[in-house]
Prior knowledge:
- The chain is of the alpha/beta class.
- The protein has one domain (23-298): 3-Layer(aba) Sandwich (Rossmann fold), CATH 3.40.50.
- 39% of the residues lie in helices and 13% in strands.
- An 8-stranded mixed beta sheet has the order 2-1-3-4-6-5-7-8, sandwiched between helices.
- The chain is globular, with a radius of gyration of 18 Å.
Amino acid sequence: MHENIFKINEKEYILPGSRACQGCGLSLAYRYILKALRENTIVAIPPSCLCVLHGLYPTTPVIVPALNTTFASNAASASGIVAGLDALGKREMTVLALSGDGGTYDIGIQSLSGAAERNTNFIFACYDNEAYMNTGTQRSGATPQGTITTTTPILTKQDPKKDFLKIMEAHHIPYLATVSPAYPIDLYDKFVKAKKIRGTRYIHIDTPCPPGWGFPTRDTVKIGKLAVETGLFVLFEIENGRFRFTGRSKTMAERGKLLPLVNYVKKQRRFKDMSIEQLKKAQSSVNSRWNEYLKRAEG
């Protein structure tokens, strides 16, 4: 599956000068997503950091067509684009709905679930920076337990993160995968693969956010790698119900040892008030899910 790094599409689809924050994990991910999907792509975008990256009409650094939608309707709008292209006989086009965690886990879940249940022929990707970053770092359904946000300013978030991957797998879609901009070749390969599959494809992107998570802008890739190496974020794909590890997570599974979660937590200000009990619970959750994945991989 994995291409040599020198076979990655050399064309750039995001020109210099976007409005994204310095060190933005989304910018890194989006660069390789568009390289993988290439010219015949239309992107649907709800209110989000991606809207900021695309800029204000009539100027944009992105050279593929995009449609701004509402928070709740991104998957529905993308479904409409698919229907329109089908009516025109333009089957070579790829439709990408790209939402943040707020527009996926929370506000956008209804239209996404409906599209997935109908097996609409598009790629829906969630760039998960674990809060509503574009509007000031409010907690979302993706925000981890023990995190400080602007809507959990005194007590940290007490609720665990929603397991959205299980929710999407329950829709029995043909392809589901996880990716990280810290591992761009794995990300690129999965979007290339998803482009060739028909039906609903769901790809979940771990998206480090320097201002929202509280780490230096130079450490975006380092934080992304720690998420994978601690097992907090696992790289895998599920194709037609078959699970398999990919990339760095495959290596970690073969070696049989993860880094302690504290290595990831201690490098981010958002966890500065996380209790020892919360850290222990988070570590236990990581271990439990990792063992579950190991059993699936063996089967």
